[in-house]
Each structure stands twice: as C-alpha cells, then as structure tokens.
Amino acid sequence: LDAQAKNMANEDVLPRLETFAPDMVVYQTTTPSIFADIDAARQIKDRFPDALNVMIGPHVTAEWRDTLV
Fold it and tell me: How far is CA 24 from the centre of its chain?
C-alpha cells in the first residue's frame, strides 16, 4: 500500500492494515517527512506490536542515529 502516493491519512491506512495483518511494514522516508513517518510507524507499531517496522530512504541512511531515538 503506497499510502503517500494515494494521499491517505494514517486513520485511513490503519483499517486497511487490520485486514491485511502485516508481518512487516516498510516506510520510504525523506527528511521533509521524517517526523510524520516516525509518527506513522509508532501508530502502526502500537496496533501491530509483532510486525517488523523498517525505515528506508535518504534520511535514515544519513541520520540513522537521530532516527532511532
């Protein structure tokens, strides 16, 4: 599900993920959207605590220490 390309808000994504029940969620991140990306990852991790959350992209590559905080 490419939520950003479909301009979907987190509250629209979560019900779709409930149906899918993912084992892993991958987030393509950028510096301008990093705080929104981290917020989305936290919400999804709260809802699916056993799912692996993976962040990829230029921001986490360059600023991985700050992203992990």
Answer: 10
* pTM as predicted: 0.79
> Residue 42: helix, strand or coil by DSSP?
helix
Beta bridge partners of 27: 55
- Tens of pLDDT, residue by residue over 17-36, are 888 889 999 999 889 988 88
Concatenated DSSP letters of 4-35: TTTT--HHHHHHHHHHH--SEEEEE--TTTHH
Angle at 42 between CA 27 and CA 64, to 5 degrees: 55
C-alpha span between 32 and 53 (Å, rounded): 20
